[in-house]
Amino acid sequence: xxxxxxxxxxxxxxxxxxxxxxxxxxxxxxxxxxxxxxxxxxxxxxxxxxxxxxxxxxxxxxxxxxxxxxxxxxxxxxxxxxxxxxxxxxxxxxxxxxxxxxxxxxxxxxxxxxxxxxxxxxxxxxxxxxxxxxxxxxxxxxxxxxxxxxxxxxxxxxxxxxxxxxxxxxxxxxxxxxxxxxxxxxxxxxxxxxxxxxxxxxxxxxxxxxxxxxxxxxxxxxxxxxxxxxxxxxxxxxxxxxxxxxxxxxxxxxxxxxxxxxxxxxxxxxxxxxxxxxxx
Length: 280
Description:
The chain is of the alpha/beta class and 280 residues long. The protein has one domain: Alpha-Beta Barrel (TIM Barrel). The protein has helices at residues 3-14, 40-51, 62-66, 71-84, 100-113, 166-175, 193-202, 220-227, 246-249, 257-279, and strands at 18-22, 57-60, 91-96, 118-121, 140-146, 184-188, 208-210, 231-232, 235-236, 240-244. The protein has an 8-stranded parallel β-sheet with strand order 2-1-10-7-6-5-4-3. It has a two-stranded antiparallel sheet with strand order 8-9. α2 crosses α10, α7 (193-202) runs parallel beside α8 and α8 (220-227) packs across α10.
């Protein structure tokens, strides 16, 4: 099943737009696990098991594993998700961006070593930094477009010759000439709902990965209004994948961390679903 099909299936099966980001920080682990990077897999697997029926996707952030020499634990986690939640696609948040043989190796890392269903990429070196990933049939490539950080405006909001902004150019390319395998998506931050709406206008059928809800302060309801379009006579628009990480992972610092994570995920899922129901 392709990444796009997996998203549609998970959204329908779980009635969810929520993506749980897996950003393990051992310093914030509960109880006896606190400060122990050897427990990264155990912590993340417990979060997965507690939330697997509530999500449209999981999104492990590779730097949180690599910084602790825990790439082997990331491999174990990816395998665990495939066993425990085979219906849920996994987005490897790597933000890779390079060309030629280096890009080929990054693509192999994401799709062969880690068996990810999709990967986040930086498009700022142009199409030839994206092209090697297209060789993996059915895999999703999610391009940075209008990111959730304030500093993203330094480049992404700048006007190009002709008047369009850089993030708008990326959205047009991703929805058009670059989308040769029909598997491209875009990253747009919940902290900029007007830009989410503009990207959706320019790329009506692409999935949007939307970080920034929760600890970064993005508004869940505004995000759904800006990015979700449901079905129309022209067909179903792209999914929105609304990510929350820290607000769910660290909902409790006690032994009840997994059940607290589930409660936080359930509350966010309900908030997103309520906002979507208004638009139907």
